[in-house]
Design goal:
CATH topology of the largest domain: Rossmann fold
Largest sheet: 6 strands, parallel
Number of strands: 9
Bound molecules: nicotinamide-adenine-dinucleotide
Structural class: alpha/beta
Number of domains: 2
Strand content: 5-15%
Number of helices: 12
CATH superfamily of the largest domain: NAD(P)-binding Rossmann-like Domain
Order of helices and strands: EHEHEHEHEHEEHEHEHHHHH
Helix content: 40-55%
CATH architecture of the largest domain: 3-Layer(aba) Sandwich
CATH class of the largest domain: Alpha Beta
Strand order of the largest sheet: 3-2-1-4-5-6
Radius of gyration: 20 Å
Length: about 290
């Protein structure tokens, strides 16, 4: 297939390279020259605008920083410029309302469009092992699926347009809450004189079992190997977790959902991000 790829940053660079590896012809654009050059080195054809990258394609994939940029790129450079038969796939993490608004604008001109945010970080993007949670009509999902399969290990249809973003922010709100809870419990066990490794062994096989404890243990030298063992470098940056929590709280407010722990998690990460935005989000344990 001929695919336009817009936004070749930490995530998009690896994803575009995997589309090339899967045999697709990738027409790439990013505002950043080094990002375009890296995409060319990975086998993409680089273009100097999103408009030209979209010419004659079967699909458009975007991986951009936020909703305002996604809206501007689609409304000014994709819709009306890509062939109307192309499927439009936005993989960025953005607010549900903007995802719906952009899809409505695309539908009005006859395009198929899905929101397809990802779970998995930069390593999963490079390794082609992302999980995609996809919102859109069935025929749009069916058209997007082969493109997404070339970049991930799981492609799940979440529901109508916006459902992908909804799944993503609800999941990450839960992740923030379980990480803070796990860190609190580990530190409290330690303060009470229990060996943290013993606590890990017990709780990871008891009702305290959860992903933050079992698969991403936030205390160095305890449990599984994780960013904690690398002084909280790499992994999932606190700044990105805060972005997702803000989107989650905005969506909760709009929907009238009562999320007291989500709101508290956002406050806790807001404070931590002031000086630690680049640290892995499990570094929150250092504040406890
Ligand atoms: P990034 O900042 O590394 O990449 C974004 C890229 O978009 C940059 O290269 C930038 O130059 C480009 N860009 C900005 N405006 C543009 C425009 N108008 N036209 C073309 N290109 C433009 O960010 P990232 O880490 O790759 O994240 C991208 C998206 O993926 C975000 O929405 C983020 O929330 C989401 N995400 C990131 C991770 C992660 O671990 N990094 C994990 C899951 C989801």
């Amino acid at each position: 297939m001929k695919i336009a790829f817009i936004g070749l940053g930490n995530m998009g660079g690896g994803m575009a390279a995997n589309l090339v590896k899967a045999g697709h012809s990738v027409r790439a654009f990013d505002l950043s020259t080094p990002a375009r050059e890296a995409a060319e080195a990975a086998g993409c054809a680089a273009f100097d605008s999103a408009k030209t990258a979209c010419e004659g394609v079967d699909a458009v994939v975007s991986m951009l920083p936020n909703g305002a940029i996604v809206k501007a790129v689609y409304e000014n450079e994709v819709i009306g410029h890509a062939p109307h038969t192309a499927v439009l796939i936005d993989c960025s993490t953005i607010d549900v309302a903007t995802a719906r608004e952009v899809a409505d604008a695309a539908h009005a001109q006859g395009y198929k469009m899905v929101d397809a945010p990802v779970s998995g970080g930069i390593a999963a993007a490079a390794g082609g092992t992302l999980t995609f949670m996809v919102g859109g009509e069935v025929h749009a999902f069916d058209a997007a699926k082969p493109v997404l399969e070339a970049m991930g290990k799981a492609v799940i249809h979440a529901g109508a347009v916006g459902a992908g973003q909804t799944a993503k922010i609800c999941n990450n709100m839960l992740l923030a809450i379980t990480m803070i809870g796990t860190a609190e419990a580990m530190k409290m066990a330690q303060k009470l004189g229990l060996d943290p490794q013993k606590f890990y062994e017990i709780s990871s096989q008891s009702s305290g079992y959860n992903w933050s404890l079992n698969a991403y243990t936030p205390m160095p030298g305890v449990g599984v190997e994780s960013p904690a063992d690398r002084d909280y470098q790499g992994g999932f940056a606190t700044g990105l977790m805060l972005k997702d929590l803000r989107l989650a709280m905005e969506a909760a407010e709009g929907a009238g959902a009562n999320t007291p722990l989500g709101a508290h998690a956002r406050e806790i990460y807001e404070e931590f991000a002031e000086d630690n935005a680049a640290l892995d989000f499990s570094g929150i344990i250092k504040t406890l």
